[in-house]
Amino acid sequence: MTTLSQKPSSSLASSTDPLQLIDVDHVRFYVGNAKQAAFFYAHCFGFTIDQYSDLTTGNRKTAEYLLTQGNIRFIITSAMSADHQAAVEVMKYGDGVKDVAFTVFDAAKAWEKAVKNGAEVAYEPYTMSDATGSITYAGIKTFGRTIHTFVSRSGGYDLPKVKQGGVFAPKFKKVEGLAVNDYNKKNPCGLKYTDHLVGNVEFGRMNHWVAWYENVMEFSMFKHFDDKDIATEYSALMSKVMSSGQGLIKIPINEPAPGKRKSQVQEYLDWHDNTPGVQHLALRCDDELHSIAALRGRGVDFLAIPEAYYDKVWDRVDTMLKAHGHHAVKEDHTKVKDLGILVDADDEGYLLQLFTKPLQDRPTLFFEIICRRGSQSFGKGNFKALFESLEIEQARRGNL
Questions:
Q1: Helix or strand (DSSP H, E) at 111
Q2: Cα 76 from Cα 80, distance rounded (Å)
Q3: Over the Cα atoms of the chain, what is R_g?
Q4: Which residues contact residue 372 at a Cβ distance below 8 angstroms, ignoring those fewer than 6 apart?
Q5: I need a labelling partner for 265 at 20 to 30 A (CA). Which of 126, 215, 231, 257 fits?
Q6: CB 293 within 8 A of CB 339
Q7: How does pLDDT run across 240-272, given as a tens digit for each residue?
Q8: Residues paired with 43 in a beta bridge
Q9: DSSP code per residue over 248-275
């Protein structure tokens, strides 16, 4: 049944702000083969293949798999026909992120407010209901191919129930007896949250999308990095970080900056049909050493950090932490180096981070694994080492 009405979830207090975000409801990927992609993310990153929706559940348009880990929910989607939007987009862009969806109190009202603020419609509100409960969806377009869906849930589809293992949506069924799920339960990778996502946009368009998030989504500016902050001998980019009012999600917007050679942002655009999109998702963990070791053991390819990086990093980080009255990095320094992890500090504390290589054949989407020990920044002190590593990979691909 489809309607345009929806009551806020009974288990969540109502809000007077339609654009108040409750959670990252899910991130939807468009891929060429959802079953195979689901097993890739399960095997390599420890996700549970929790539920599925396909021909056997009454879904005639797509095959979809819900992957879960901590409070992370990915929907892996592939088309069942050549004219479906997912098939068209995979042909143009390859596998990647299509939709970053937010749970809100009332999806229709959030959508109406965003459209009033200037958003372009991706699709109008509609509700799916069955004996379990109801879910209302409504979508707006953001940079390039990407959309944001507002989601409000009630009954058995209420988000707290979903987090406890309830059915995600109509036409989804629980997966039973899957060996990879049993293995991942016994050998966790420790990923907890979607910390932030980065959007790559064309040269000269960063400020446009910054204003869009300020005016349409009512986000605020969190940090700004220019080409003096993010540059090497060969390439540079500029970035402005947008944050939701509740601090739920941060969205850095990157654009290329002039350099001697091609930046990572321009390489992304070149292999993404010259269309903006999500460059990477940052997944937060509580123990960087454990998570990186577990992921490396599963075959995840990470960027190689130059050994010389570790000759200077500890003095830089310790000096910053001491200057602001914080304790030194508690993680074992030798293990940090052996695992190739990056470390940075600011006035609030420190963080540990590492970036995968692209997750598909096209050099587009990748993941960041990040652990925060107070710092809420993005590793400014690591930019040079990180970009030098990226440039090595670009040169190997013939794209520098």
A1: helix 107-116
A2: 13
A3: 21
A4: 195, 284, 349, 351
A5: 215
A6: yes
A7: 899 986 778 899 998 887 765 677 888 899 999
A8: none
A9: S-EEEEEEEE--SS--HHHHHHHTTTT-
Helix (H) / strand (E) element for 329: namely none
Tens-level pLDDT at each residue, the chain (400 residues)? 333 333 334 344 456 899 999 999 999 999 999 999 999 999 999 999 999 999 999 999 999 999 999 999 999 999 999 999 999 999 999 999 999 999 999 999 999 999 999 999 999 999 999 999 999 999 999 999 999 999 999 999 999 999 999 999 999 999 999 999 999 999 999 999 999 999 999 999 999 999 999 999 999 988 776 555 555 554 466 788 999 867 788 999 988 877 656 778 888 999 999 999 999 999 999 999 999 999 999 999 999 988 888 888 999 999 999 999 999 999 999 999 999 999 999 999 999 999 999 999 999 999 999 999 999 888 776 766 655 665 667 778 887 6
224's CB contacts (< 8 A; 6+ apart) are 239, 240, 241
pLDDT digits (tens, 9 = 90+) for 340-358: 999 999 999 999 999 999 9
112-141 residues labelled b (16+ CB within 10 A) or e (exposed): bbbeeeebeebeebbbbbeebbbbbbbbbe
Could you tell me the end-to-end alpha-carbon distance of the chain, in angstroms, rounded to an integer?
52
- 396: how many CB neighbours lie within 10 A of its CB? 9
Q: Cβ distance 321 to 345 under 8 Å?
A: yes
Flag whether the pTM goes above 0.85. yes
Rounded Cα distance, 155 and 177, in Å: 27
Output the six-digit token pair for 350: 């420190």
Kindly list the distances between the CA atom of residue 66 and the CA atoms of 47, 72, 307, in Å, as whole numbers in the listed order.
9, 10, 39
What the block records as the tokens of 38 is: 């689901």
**Per-residue DSSP letter, 302:** B
User: Which DSSP symbol is given to 300?
Assistant: -
DSSP calls for 13-75: ---S-TT---EEEEEEEE-S-HHHHHHHHHHHH--EEEEEESGGGT-SSEEEEEEEETTEEEE
The single-letter code of the amino acid at 36 is Q
CB atoms within 10 A of CB 44: 17
